[in-house]
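Hi R.,

Here's the chain you asked about this morning:
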Amino acid sequence: MSCTSCSSSINGLPLGCKNNGACSSGSCDKMNVFDWLANMSLPNGQKPFDIAEIRFKNGRKGYYKNTKELQLCIGDIVAVESSPGHDIGVISLTGELVKVQMRKKKVSSNKDSISQIYRKASEKDVEIWTVARNKEKEVQRKSRLIISRLGLKMKLSDVEFQGDGNKATFYYTADDRVDFRQLIRELAGTFSLRVEMKQVGLRQEAARLGGIGSCGRELCCSTWLTDFRSVSTSAARYQQLSLNPQKLAGQCGKLKCCLNYELDSYTDALKSFPKPNVWLHTEKGPAVFQKMDIFKGWIWYAYKENPINWHKLTVEQTNQIIELNKKNGKATSLEEYAMELEYEVAEASNFKDVVGQDSLTRFDKPKYKKKKKRGRNNRNRNFKGNKKNLQKKKN
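And here is the predicted structure, written out as tokens:
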């Protein structure tokens, strides 16, 4: 999503919202938080919260205290304290909602342990920051060549430069422990900067890089999802999904996080369903479970001796047969229950239309029949009449 001022000029260049290339509304960034308290004033005597949330590259965020009482708004580019030097980031949230975000991410509110905001970024700061960001792709390419030459079993996924250009963080993924002491020496000597190696998981890597999922939308982990809960194959079993790893896995190679979204609805609906391993005993023989439709409440069973013909039952009918079997009784046949269900469905679908509300054309204008053209017939009649009159006059 973008704000209404993110249009393009005649030459095709983005105009933006005239905020030095950043978005003042914050809607163009990742992991946005809507500040619904922005238009509300604080109670009398209460000072505004002096800690701001600042966003860096690929959705990375940090919390910094505003000790100099700067007038900060969402979208402002600021210079913040870093080790060593300073870093450049964009204000993503201010005010009382920062407390909620810090509590959610379990960040200590002790102001002594939080870094501070130096100043609003000047034009020189933004220029140095832009030059450093433009180096990242080339540095990443050369770093991958060095890693392959050293034979290290690791994958370099991203490189992030600090705002002053004196330090770079290399994000990588690896299955085992990697000894990258020689790698750090070569990277520091090649690029003449301080190097920090940071290992991330596969889900964190997908969240940083982003992408398009199989649903056609951006990845949840790179747009709004902040906590990565464990996903098991039982979530797919509850939802009657085939255990195909190619369809259930996301771009990170793990099971998709969206398998947990509707899991609670499925588990609630399955409470009234019998277990699939329970057989139905009838006078024609035992019946075995075949499949189910969870939200319609239908279950298909087939006789053990004739597994080709399936019979559709409701959950209530199935529970009645199970209760009858517990009392050492047997149902007559599945065909009777299936016929009863078909009769109920037919009765529900058949209704008498008294008012004519099912007509789709009842509000249309009536179509009148076209009048036949009688001009030629009238001419013939007049011609015959005139001819008879002339004959009468001659006689």
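One quick note: The chain has a mean pLDDT of 83.

Cheers,
M.
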